[in-house]
Write a structure and sequence with these properties.
Blueprint: H1 14-27, H2 32-37, H3 41-55, H4 61-74, H5 80-90, H6 95-103, H7 110-124, H8 131-139, H9 144-167, H10 173-176
């Protein structure tokens, strides 16, 4: 495994410095994921842009959390599961939803469970989803727009989950209380 630097504004490549300022503005700190990504400024920029865009989708805070955490748990991302548990708490998502996602237990909402199943199928099958899963997704009230928005969330999570696997990113102190 390679050794990765946790960049600060002083050590980051010039192109990453303003991006790290964005991180501080958003989180009040430079999350370790962003500190690692700063090594490749275009990766950090892409991640930040996708994160912002995914939050602008038609999904509610609960649905965003379902998509993010379903992918994080499936990818076994030691960093993103607690980080997105913290983000869910800041977005006032019911802790029961977060717990069900992290523990792989059924969600109380049938609609959210369909969203989890569709996200999981998309993640596992590289975008190939069978007719039964698609019918359930659409019957639950979701549309083609939301199906494509899952692709956006999945793209964001591939960037972070894979980076964390490569770098074995240390969990930030504020996220540690959400680690299981």
């Amino acid at each position: 495994m390679s050794n990765f630097t946790l960049h600060t504004k002083d050590t980051a490549p010039e192109a990453a410095k303003s991006l790290l300022d964005n991180s501080v503005s958003a989180f009040g700190m430079i999350p370790n994921l962003h500190a690692v990504m700063a090594e490749a400024p275009t990766l950090l920029e892409g991640y930040q842009v996708l994160h912002e865009l995914f939050q602008k989708t038609s999904f509610t805070a609960e649905e965003l959390t379902v998509v993010w955490q379903t992918i994080n748990v499936e990818h076994a991302c030691h960093y993103c599961v607690p980080a997105h548990s913290a983000i869910a708490a800041s977005m006032k998502v019911d802790q029961a939803i977060v717990d069900a996602l992290v523990n792989k237990t059924p969600l109380a909402s049938a609609k959210l469970e369909i969203l989890r199943g569709t996200t999981l199928a998309m993640t596992r099958n590289r975008g190939v989803i069978d007719k039964q899963q698609l019918d359930a997704f659409f019957d639950a009230g979701y549309s083609n727009q939301q199906l494509l928005e899952i692709v956006l969330g999945l793209s964001q999570k591939v960037m972070s989950n894979y980076t964390n696997h490569l770098a074995n990113t240390e969990i930030d102190e504020p996220f540690k209380k959400f680690a299981k």
